[in-house]
Amino acid sequence: MPAKNGHQNGLATINGSTVPILPKVKEKVLQSNPVPEPALPIRIFRVVLLLIYFWTSSIFIGVTQYIGTPLYLINKDQYYRFMAFTKQCMMLLVLSMTQWWTTTTVYVSGDESVQDQIHRLPNGRLKCSFASRMVLISNHQLYNDWIYLWWTAYINRPFNHGHVYIVLKESIMYIPLVGLGLRLAGFVFMSRNLKTDTPRLTHRLSQLTRRSDGGKGELQPMWLMMFPEGTNLSKNGRAKSVKWAERQGEKDLKYTLIPRSTGTYFCLKALKGTLEWVYDCTLAYDGVPEGQYGQDVFTLRSTYFERHPQAPIHMHWRRFKVSDIPLETLEDFHAWLMERWNEKEALLKEHARTGHFPSSINQGKSITTELQLGRWWEILQTGAVLAPITIGIFAISSFVGHVRSG
Hints:
By secondary structure, the chain is of the alpha/beta class. 46% of the residues lie in helices and 16% in strands. It has 14 helices and 13 strands. It has helices spanning 22-32, 40-68, 71-74, 76-101, 145-154, 178-184, 194-208, 212-215, 235-248, 262-271, 294-297, 300-305, 330-354, 386-405; strands at 6-8, 11-14, 17-20, 105-110, 118-120, 126-128, 133-138, 164-169, 188-190, 222-226, 277-285, 313-321, 367-370. The strands form three sheets. An eight-stranded mixed β-sheet has the order 9-8-10-7-11-12-4-13, with helices on both faces. α2 packs antiparallel against α4. It is globular, with a radius of gyration of 23 Å. Residues 134-265 form the Phospholipid/glycerol acyltransferase domain.
């Protein structure tokens, strides 16, 4: 007979296994990261303020993008520089929301391949010196994983947060205002249908391999961010991963999902010769009980609206030379990618056991930092184009009105 599910003393019995109930998990995390719970009117005010801030800033950025679109017909180099600026504004908006509306601690570690590329500054902040052109692959734990990977481009030197291109689900493309803004930013949308995705990828990747100055200059910076698992770790995602593993005759994984290799293979084949490195980040979150999923414990609502602190994030970095990656056939590449995911499994098992990843940087210890803006006034960049235009239009209309009335 199948095991019955039940609840007792803050625990849940699911299929014979005893795990903490989600509210108890959140309570435990809140106790380890104490944040005073504001009164209901304050919480409502915070939510309203967040929504006003997000949508007002998004409108500013979106209108700025529309103003710059004619540059594509005039000077493509200037167009791409302009859109990179608007993408920087997007990152600053998301980063400022994460800093001002929640608390986010990050532990950063890495192996010997990146030991000279990750540094802790005297003020406690982090600085990276990763390659200006890369394909970035990562496991997918929460909906907001991309925020922390994009933040890495922000703390990179030179800055690269204006040159991040994220591969996203097609459904995101249809979100009002946001979807169109992401399309203008050059993000890649996938439907998981090879017939539909191939021309999209071909078009986008051709833009990412273009050179400035009419083809005579340097290749533009590029961080192409991909989640080979295709979706974040969840109950539904786990079920699909099990079926996929059975069809492929492979052993399913525990802490990650079986990666899909076709899209990543296509991109690396198309970009080969234009970049030297593939960077890999393994993400883990504290406070997720065995047998449960981070997306159910730490939601966007609890993080931003309820002021629950985001679970401490662990990022473990590695890099691989593209020339060492087998790209002759899809089968060869899939075998290579599965090796990397099995290594991730070992890393995540170590994190589950000890609470940290092993590290070859910072004298064998992870670097502790927080998601923060370098300077608070950087967020004013979101109005750097639209505000002067608006003021100019207002001044001209006032002057014309004054002349007419005179």
